[in-house]
Amino acid sequence: MGSMAEKWEELSGKNNWDGLLDPLDVDLRRYIIQYGELAHVTYDTFIDDKASKYAGASRYSMENLFARAGLDSSKYKVTKYFYATSSMPLPAAFILKSASREAWSKESNFMGYIAVATDEGKVSLGRRDIVVAWRGTIQTLEWVNDLEFLLIPGPKVFGNGGLIPLFQPLVHHGFYNVYTSESSRSKFNQTSARDQVLAEVKRLVEEYKDEEVSITVAGHSLGASLATLNAVDIAFNGINKTSEGKEFPVSAFVFASPKVGDLNFQKAFSKLKHLHILRIHNLLDIVPKYPPIGYFDVGQEIVIDTTKSPYLKLNPGDPHTRHNLEGYLHGIDGTQGIGVLAGFKLEVNRDLALVNRIWDILKDEYLVPGAWWVEKNKGMVQQQDGKWLLMDREDYDIIMTEL
């Protein structure tokens, strides 16, 4: 950990990861996995059972989030949960709605969290790191085909003036809508996910303005596209600047990310000298190839190929084998390149059991049940009178969290 603390600027992309990608530096492997795990927490805590009145909410409180998700709770402290809604029809995988008449919200979903390094974490990380983790979707991948690939201007990110339409950055309509939508019908989205995140990041930047600070954004799948948009937004609009004008670096680690914008979006990104994005792409995963026309990638790319792993089932007909986040982290651990002669060797030795956390992709010989990350009895709790009730969320006040 000492070397990672000393190398954090390099690992965060100060030199665009020059010399670290091929072969993949072992400290960078650990670094990427660290942020992948922080992104995975958004899945671990998300209640995806429509039978629950808390469907779409976080199962765990901010105070207990990391401990409940099995991560070291001493490095970061969660300072805010943020929520998203949409003002346009979107695939159900984007915004999950409870079937209960007592639903906590009919309009909003938990979309991620913001955390900041603790004093103890600052020592091991080498600086005061502010993390924004965006939730993706673990539903079926049909949402990729259901999306319209319409490109629209992003005035809330890039403003309205100064550019003729020919040079205006355009972004994906659906991603932009989730990122910027408000709803007067939801107490959780009186302001958009964008505004909630930017306000909290700005507050933390100002609180720690006299320290060495970084801003790191992470996400997977849909969350990766939102993380990309958010990272560009933070850097473009100076959310990473203190009131005295000091500018902190912004990095994004995005896994299985769809493309977000057009050529002008790519050009706008390339002008942001304090922003660095690293995209991790599993070779046979279809999602990073979408949308196929009119969109351009941003940042540096690492391509992995988990079909080379001797630990995983091939499952050629199952796209989730190539797309799920735990599979990606396993790939980062073991990738030795994607050439014909490239092998696969675990360098970080991350626990193999985690590969089966959400899906069943680990070979049966390792005796790890598939999709083992489930709430005990699926959240059903027996009462004193012998009856069973669905009680699948920690007893914390969602409204106070939002306020």
From TrEMBL:
E.C. designation(s): 3.1.1.-
Alphabetized InterPro entries for the sequence: AB_hydrolase_fold, Fungal_lipase-type, PLA
A Pfam family this chain is assigned to: Lipase_3
Listed CDD domains: Lipase_3
Domain Fungal lipase-type, residue spans: 131-293
A molecular function GO annotation: phospholipase A1 activity
GO cellular component: cytoplasm
Keywords per UniProt: Hydrolase, Lipid degradation, Lipid metabolism
GO BP term (any one): lipid catabolic process
The protein's enzyme class: hydrolase
Family: Belongs to the AB hydrolase superfamily. Lipase family.
Function: Acylhydrolase that catalyzes the hydrolysis of phospholipids at the sn-1 position.
Protein name (record): Phospholipase A1
Organism: Anisodus acutangulus
